[in-house]
Write a structure and sequence with these properties.
Layout (H helix, E strand, L loop, with lengths): L2 E5 L2 E3 L5 E8 L8 E6 L5 E7 L6 E3 L7 E6 L4 E6 L8 E7 L16 E5 L2
Parallel strand pairs: 2-10
Antiparallel strand pairs: 1-3, 3-8, 4-5, 4-9, 5-6, 7-8, 9-10
């Protein structure tokens, strides 16, 4: 069965960095775009970034441009999100999802369990 497992979240001070990973299994990873989506406390889902199947087309939400970098390793069936210059408003649960431009729960059939990112001093 399809599984997406995120890791790498944690507590970091403003200005710090984290690298999230999402390990995929149960489908041909190299054929699918992948998205990172986050949910801030008390708010709805927000698309953060996505990457096409080959990794040569990347997209970012405006507030993370220049700070976050999405990448993938198709040999390892893993997608990454490098997050630099983190701000308190980046706090939330980060999910990976199969597909591009995923903005709501019903726009992807497959989601990870989420990893908590907390940016606080």
């Amino acid at each position: 069965q399809v599984q997406l497992v995120e890791s790498g979240g944690g507590l970091v001070q403003p200005g710090g960095s984290l690298r999230l990973s999402c390990a995929a299994s149960g489908f041909t990873f190299s054929r699918y775009a992948m998205s990172w989506v986050r949910q801030a406390p008390g708010k709805g889902l927000e698309w953060v970034s996505d990457i096409n199947s080959s990794g040569d087309s990347l997209s970012y939400e405006d507030s993370v441009k220049g700070r976050f970098t999405i990448s993938r390793d198709n040999a390892k069936n893993t997608v990454y999100l490098q997050m630099n210059s983190l701000k308190p408003e980046d706090t939330g649960v980060y999910y990976c999802a199969q597909g591009a431009a995923v903005e709501s729960w019903d726009e992807s059939d497959y989601w990870g369990q989420g990893t908590q990112v907390t940016v606080s001093s």
